[in-house]
Amino acid sequence: MSEVVLSLEDVRVHYGKVEALKGVSLDVGKGEIVALIGGNGAGKTTTLKTISGLRPVTSGVIRFEGRDISGVPAHDRVKLGISQSPEGRRIFPGMTVMENLEMGVYARKSRNTQAELDRVFTLFPRLSERRKQAGGTLSGGEQQMLAIGRALMAQPKVLLLDEPSMGLAPRLVSQIFEIVTEINSQGTTVLLVEQNAAQALQRSHRAYVMETGHVIKSAVAKELLDDESVRAAYLGGDVASRS
């Protein structure tokens, strides 16, 4: 693994009296795509929200580039270089595509956005065509592109992607994952939460398997693709059928 840019050390998180994360530890190396896979309620989305600062840490430490950010407010984590494309897209439906993208630079000191806009429109030409269109009138796939594009406008060092393929047609799923790979090849580290475990593992360098708030297994992604217990639980025993 390359230099660690993001790490969680024995992180515990509660929703009231319910412990959602039960001592989660993981590392993300600079330049990697790291996947979190697991069933519903495993704690994957809570992990991303905790990294983003949207859920408080009960105990444990989150480090970013060697710094303890466990108590840093969410907006300041964006300034440090952590940006999230949330589950369910969460775009602003009444705003245009351009206005949604401009919201992505809100926390940045520099408002010179042309380089980021060029990057987003190169990755997602459809957004360029629809830049004056209201976000709420876009298709599901286009809204997902917009959510990722908005996150990229913040110039993240680490991009958190929560279920980018959710609700998309198979053709669009493949397209989204190709774009995720391209974003990573351009130098952005990615932490990916994804129900489509086969696609996630095929695109990732390493992966963690979560279950009921615990990390139960971690390995090079290819090893998990070949792991019989992972295949049975998350891949339906047949990787090819979900590729």
Q: How do you describe this structure in short?
A:
This protein has ten helices and ten strands.
Task: Characterize the structure shown.
- The protein has 243 residues and is of the alpha/beta class.
- It folds into two domains: 1-81 and 162-243, Rossmann fold (3-Layer(aba) Sandwich); 88-155, no CATH class.
- It has ten helices and ten strands.
- The chain has helices spanning 44-52, 74-80, 97-103, 114-123, 125-129, 140-152, 170-185, 197-203, 221-225, 228-234, and strands spanning 4-15, 18-29, 33-37, 59-64, 67-68, 82-85, 158-162, 189-193, 206-211, 214-220.
Low-confidence stretches: 237-243
Stated plainly, the CATH topology of the largest domain is called Rossmann fold
Q: On the 0-100 scale, what is the average pLDDT?
A: 91
The counted number of beta strands is 10
CATH superfamily of the largest domain: P-loop containing nucleotide triphosphate hydrolases
Distance between the termini: 26 Å
- Approximate shape: globular
Q: Helix tally?
A: 10
The domain count comes to 2
Features:
243 residues; alpha/beta; Rossmann fold; 2 domains; 4-stranded antiparallel β-sheet; 10 strands; globular
What's the structural blueprint in terms of helices and strands?
Blueprint: E1 4-15, E2 18-29, E3 33-37, H1 44-52, E4 59-64, E5 67-68, H2 74-80, E6 82-85, H3 97-103, H4 114-123, H5 125-129, H6 140-152, E7 158-162, H7 170-185, E8 189-193, H8 197-203, E9 206-211, E10 214-220, H9 221-225, H10 228-234
Parallel strand pairs: 3-8, 3-9, 6-7, 7-8
Antiparallel strand pairs: 1-2, 1-4, 4-5, 9-10
Helix pairs in contact: 3-6
